[in-house]
Write a structure and sequence with these properties.
A hairpin with a 2-residue loop joins strand 3 and strand 4. The model has no long low-confidence stretch (mean pLDDT 91). This protein is 3% helix and 56% strand. The N and C termini lie far apart (42 Å). It has a 20-stranded mixed sheet that branches. It has 209 residues and is mainly beta.
Length: 209
């Protein structure tokens, strides 16, 4: 049973945990792996009592890898929900590896995204927090931040070899600390693109090269 099928099948709520063992998992649902509001069913955590998805810490054996369905726009979509924690998961082979939309209090720790079109997409996410995350070898951006209500932090992470660049920051606020950003070896690659006058960016103790 792949993790996406488990999320579809069971009524996840506050305090529930889905453990994802070491291995690669292909998302069989053509709509992708989903959590939050799906149809008229809402799956959400509570303050201090989130829904948790926990992958393997056995990185020597490859960890826990979610391979997206090519028919879906996102390998994993977290939509219109609150209080969700993800850790030790890597998303590959999707249009957007991990997409979070209209959500609040989303914690992403030791999360990776590689070989997607975009690694991470955050759209109107209030208190979206990345810690020790990485995005690399994506065809466009490592991280996109959209939506006027977005407030995103990226701490102790890395982005490298993303063809268009590390971050495309369109709307909302983004805080980056103690992280490394390395551009792809192309003439057009950038590290951080801020293309809106209403996009607020702040950073401290970072390495850009």
């Amino acid at each position: 049973l792949d993790p996406g099928a488990a999320l579809d099948r069971y009524p996840f709520g506050p305090g529930d945990v889905l453990y994802v063992d070491t291995g690669s998992y292909f998302v069989t649902n053509p709509l992708g792996m989903r959590l939050g509001l799906v149809g008229d069913i809402l799956k959400s955590g509570e303050p201090g009592n989130p829904i948790r998805l926990v992958g393997s810490t056995n990185t020597a054996a490859g960890g826990s890898v979610i391979q997206g369905n090519p028919l879906s726009s996102a390998g994993f979509l977290i939509n219109e929900t609150k209080h969700v924690d993800l850790s030790h998961l890597t998303f590959i082979g999707s249009s957007n590896g991990l997409e979070v939309s209209s959500a609040e209090d989303i914690n992403l720790t030791w999360i990776g995204a590689r070989n997607n079109v975009n690694g991470f997409v955050m759209n109107n996410v209030i208190s979206g927090r990345f810690s020790r995350a990485a995005a690399w070898s994506n065809q466009r951006w490592g991280l996109q931040v959209n939506g006027a209500y977005s407030s995103i932090s990226w701490n102790n992470g890395a982005m490298f070899a993303n063809v268009s660049g590390g971050v495309q920051h369109v709307f909302g606020s983004l805080q980056v600390n103690n992280s490394a950003f390395v551009s792809a070896p192309t003439n057009s690659s950038v590290i951080i693109e801020i293309n809106s006058s209403v996009a607020g960016y702040a950073g401290d103790h970072n390495v850009y090269c």
